[in-house]
Amino acid sequence: MKVAEAKKWIAQARSLAVLTGAGISAESGLPTFRGPGGLWRNFRPEQLATPEAFHRDPQLVWEWYDWRRSVHAKCEPNAGHRAIAELEKRTQEFLLITQNVDSLHERAGSKRIVHLHGSLWRVRCLVCGGEAENTQVPLDPLPPRCACGGMLRPDVVWFGEALPQEAMERALQAAYSADVFLVAGTASVVYPAAALPHVAKQHGARVIEVNLEATELSAVADITLRGKCGGILPGLL
Ligand code: OAD
To answer: What's the pLDDT tens digit per position in 20-67?
Structure first.
């Protein structure tokens, strides 16, 4: 029984790291990026999620992010998010590493968390560099402005940009020290995030993957559990 084995490894883990992607929020009603209905099926990343796109047409980029914020604002955490928050409570050394820009993990109770790709709910000033939380939906005016008068941008990582250094360092540290590295709801194709379970495995961790389908990681994972995060993750508690 793969589920029972995975559950045993997790219960015995002194150090547990969890990496999540858009799949964990799919059951909350948020679109993933790839696959049927995925955002990158309907929108071109180079027109919406690059520094060049923002420079060319900040209004268009902000309209897209404003739309995504309005969709996210209506969503609630699901059983998968809640199961991960519960795993954190039960594990001494724990880190949740998410590629998601939503705040559903926090809303489910996760505390030890790093956002590798930033947050939809934070903004950053292009002029003074100031960062702030911003939960206004819809945004008005668009593009939003900083108190200094400068234009704000979403505090997310765009294609061609580096990941936030501190978040990446914490994620790598967790990969080095994890006994178990659980990967849930990610296609495992976007680097450097996708490298983390490989790093963990090289440092002795057992890798467990939860996904609807086979991914680039599946051949490397010690246990692969096929199905929805909301169905499988609570069963690992
Ligand atoms: P993807 O959309 O690439 O992949 C979602 C994965 O979740 C797929 O492997 C699906 O099979 C799986 N999945 C979907 N629904 C699921 C469910 N209910 N339960 C379990 N698995 C499910 O999303 P990510 O891998 O997160 O980056 O994408 C990584 C990055 O690519 C994103 O953070 C974003 C995007 O470009 C940036 O914006 C920088």
So the answer is: 999 999 999 999 998 888 888 888 888 899 999 999 999 999 999 999
Q: Which of 72, 81, 115, 117 is catalytic?
A: 117
Amino acid at site 2 = K
Q: What is the pLDDT of residue 43?
A: 83
Atom of ligand 1 nearest to the CA of 80: 19
Q: With bands split at pLDDT 50, 70 and 90, how would you rate the model's confidence at 121?
A: very high
- Please state which CATH number belongs to domain 2-30+77-117+164-236: 3.40.50.1220
Q: Pick the atom of ligand 1 nearest to 101's CA.
A: 33
Centre of ligand 1 from the C-alpha of residue 30, in Å = 11
Tell whether pTM > 0.90: yes
| Pairing mode of beta strands 118-125, 152-156 | antiparallel
Contacts of 109 (CB under 8 A, 6+ apart): 82, 85, 86, 88
117 classed as catalytic? yes
Can you give the C-alpha Rg of the chain in angstroms?
Answer: 18
Residue with tokens 């199961």: 83
From the candidate CATH numbers 3.30.1600.10, 3.40.50.1700, 3.30.43.10, 3.40.50.12780, the one assigned to the domain spanning 31-74+123-156 = 3.30.1600.10
